[in-house]
UniProtKB/TrEMBL annotation:
GO terms for molecular function: DNA binding; DNA-binding transcription factor activity. Pfam families: HTH_1, LysR_substrate. Signal peptide: none annotated. This is Transcriptional regulator, LysR family.
Length: 300
């Protein structure tokens, strides 16, 4: 029993006339009659009662009529889904992201993508850059939004997604909190909360170089905490911290964010995926994410 036979059967079951069914199917009547007889032989049951004046369905035929229509409907739906998946218009995306991207441009990019691709299911995981890169290589993520280290594994493709500037987070009760802007030299005698150098050697060294060029040598307190917990330390008066603008846009009790007069490295985010991922859905997602990306460059 194949789909062609089921279509032949349903045409006859609906018309209850072999000649009319043959016309609807654009075939001659003898092949249609042969197809029905072959189907009855394969199933071991008569599907039609035939007389010289009429054709009617048997009990087995009535049952098959309902089931055959369901089979064809399901087959059509499956074929449509597969076609849509092949075009990258359906499926599931597992996306990794670091906190600053999630707090910044990503939600708006995802909303725009979902509006155009309502049948794509998105699973979002907040992970560190290091964990995302490892998960991508293990094929546990489809794409990731990371703050890149000095180099990214050659098995991964990546492109710049967005950049933003740093602002300085300072305790609300500090005298400098009354300023509208801040120069790096003003924090020379303060404590700066900063990530450990091995976390991102290139970015760490670039920040320290900018501090030195501005004449600032603050006491450094290294913390492996994420930005939100670091903000709590700032609020408690334990030091200052550099924050991406997107995080600074979220009010936090006890913390004031000031624009920095001096130049600092731009906070750069990359979109990453595996080179051997041929998924059209991943390709379309990457293209959509880069549609409105703007690139800036600031050097010390």
């Amino acid at each position: 029993m194949d789909l062609r036979q089921l279509r032949h059967f349903l045409a006859v079951a609906k018309a209850l006339h072999f000649g009319k069914a043959a016309i609807q199917l654009h075939i001659s009547q003898p092949p249609l009659s042969q197809s029905i007889r072959k189907l009855e032989d394969e199933l071991g049951a008569r599907l039609f009662e035939r007389t010289s004046r009429s054709v009617s369905l048997t009990a087995a035929g009535k049952y098959l009529q309902e089931e055959a229509q369901a089979i064809l409907d399901r087959t059509t739906a499956v074929a449509k889904h597969v076609e849509q998946m092949g075009q990258g218009k359906e499926g599931q995306l597992t996306i990794g992201t670091i906190g600053p991207v999630l707090e910044g441009p990503l939600p708006y990019s995802l909303r725009h993508f979902k509006e155009k691709n309502p049948h794509v299911d998105i699973s979002l995981q907040q992970l560190t850059t290091r964990n995302q890169l490892q998960a991508l290589l293990r094929q546990e993520l489809d794409v990731g939004f990371v703050r890149p280290f000095n180099t990214i594994d050659s098995r991964l493709s990546h492109t710049r997604y967005a950049r933003e500037s740093y602002v300085m987070a300072i305790p609300e009760g500090h005298p400098l909190a009354k300023n509208s802007t801040l120069s790096l030299k003003e924090i020379a005698n303060e404590t700066l909360l900063i990530f450990p150098r091995p976390t991102n050697t290139g970015l760490y060294d670039a920040i320290i170089t900018c501090l030195h060029r501005a004449g600032a040598t603050p006491k450094l307190l290294h913390t492996a905490l994420l930005k939100h917990p670091t903000g709590a330390l700032v609020a408690a008066g334990l030091g200052f911290s550099l924050m991406p603008e997107s995080l600074a846009a979220i009010p936090r009790p006890g913390v004031v964010h000031l624009p920095i007069k001096d130049k600092l490295p731009i906070v750069e985010y990359h979109l990453v995926w595996t080179k051997n991922n041929s998924s059209r859905l991943v390709q379309r997602f990457v293209e959509a994410m880069l549609e409105k990306t703007t690139i800036q460059q600031v050097d010390c």
